[in-house]
Amino acid sequence: MIKKQLPDLIINGVSGGSGGNYDRVIIEGVGKVTSDTTSRVFKGNGLIRVNGDLTADEMDCNGTMNVKGDLRFVTMKADGMLEIKGRLHGERCNLNGLMKVQGDCELEEFKGEGGFTIDGLLSAGQVDFRLHGSGKAREIGVESIVIRQANIGVWSKLWSGIFPKFKPELMAGTIEGDNIDLEFTSADIVRGNKVIIGKGCSIGLVEYRSELILHPGVVIGKEEKIGG
Questions:
Q1: Model confidence over 168-192: pLDDT tens digits?
Q2: CA 191 to CA 183: how far, in whole Å?
Q3: How far is 143 from 183, CA to CA, in rounded Å?
């Protein structure tokens, strides 16, 4: 049986295209896809809008992208601003910029620099993020998480217009995981096995099973060893 080759969707300049199943979607300029779209490769450079769900094995976005529905991928590299009206689900995400997700966000690996706002739950295997602006999530559940402020350099100067009013800080209701290493974080509850609360943190309650390390000067309402 001969497998049918899927078509490509190529948008250049200021134009649009219909959704559907594609092998590759390539957008250069200002492009809009009018409905749910599935592709093996999705690459966008410029101003991209998808009026529906977007599913791709490999994603590479540079500029500003708005997805009206859910976003699903295997790997994604995003440089710029990304807004997802629905949920986000993927394996590996590398973000350099600003991401907003109105639903839940589920990832195996979340790395990058910039800022993010997740209105729902952030669920991930590994999180390693450097904040230039604020990071927000209602709840965070991970295997391991490392949060730092980004070093001031060329990237910061280029993106200073995006983050002028936002303190580089992670804010969450609950952060739970196995290995937790935080700096510049405000949270109601932090719960984990090995927990490091670094500089710039303010935590209401810290619960740990095996080890707790506190940086001098952190603000902790209460700490408690749990488990056997």
A1: 999 999 999 999 999 999 999 999 9
A2: 15
A3: 17
Q: What is the DSSP annotation of 114-180?
A: EEEEEEEEEEEEEEEEEEEEEEEEEEEEEEEEEEEEPPPSHHHHHHTTTSTT--S-EEEEEEEEEEE
CA–CA dist 138, 154 (Å, integer): 31
Amino acid in position 165: K
Handedness of CA 192, 71, 60, 66 (dihedral sign): negative
d(CA 204, CA 190): 8
- Name the pTM for this structure: 0.90
Residue 1 carries which DSSP code?
Answer: -
Under DSSP, the state recorded for 200 is: T
Instruction: Tell me the CA distances in angstroms from 152 to 63, 88, 168, one per residue in order.
Output: 22, 29, 11
Residue 47: C-alpha distances to residues 59, 115, 133 (Å) = 15, 19, 22
Give the lowest-confidence range in 5-14, 72-81, 162-171, 176-185: 162-171
Distance CA 141, CA 174 (A): 8
Cα–Cα–Cα angle for 115, 196, 177, rounded to 5 degrees: 70
pLDDT attached to residue 98: 96
The tokens describing 158, both together, are 């280029």
Interior angle at CA 132, CA 106 and CA 118, nearest 5: 25
